[in-house]
Amino acid sequence: MDRRFLSQAEVITASRKFVCVRLATYEDRQEAEFLKSLFVGRSGDLENTTFAILSPDGQRQLARSHRSPTHTQSGAAQLAQTMNRIAGQYQVQKSSADAALPKAASVRLALDIAACDRQPLAVLHASDADALRLLEDRLRALAWSDDFVGQLVYAATDDGEQLKAIDGLAPGNVLLIVQPDQFGLKGKVLAQASAKASKLEWQRALRTGIEQQQRVERTLLQHIQDGQRDGVFWETRIPVTDPLEKRAREKGPNPPPAR
Q: In CATH, what number does 107-212 get?
């Protein structure tokens, strides 16, 4: 998460007027093609970050797209002003439908997102899709409540194989609050609760995870150096085309210049 912009209070307030989507870049080919239609860098291909503001139908760009808001906005205040101006041009149509649980596509991807954003990860696990759907309905209201909105990353699975990267799971527990490791490849349980636990116990588990989450601040260059020293690279679903990232993978222990 870009802490100069996206985590600032004025931007968070302005974002409540939008549908905000965290895209996965090299994890989905169809998504990657859509991102390429919005922005490509000097390489002429998809780079590993893209920032865009689109019309409600997703067809028109309402502001100049680039790698991040740092390339088009002077700071968080200007970004919030831009977003508020754009939002003011549209009549909001309120829906009676409940917002879905804002979950990542898989536990694997959610671990990585949580590590990037330095947030705890809430994972739901059930033995089948129907049971999992009931658990998601229960967690959804808590996820969007004032106490927890924006403070956790979420995932849900009925595949036990996806939990092998998480240490400390006690049998019978379906809600896990997880601390991701530095590179988002593994995690450890900070708190957990069973399906029979009360709403209060689920709230307590979420709050415990938030309070116990350990956030180690590193610069981007430090993070890159740590990863290359340890030989760690995120294995993407589709090939990486970002020039700096490709060069880092090819050079191994020599870090690329800081962006």
A: 3.40.30
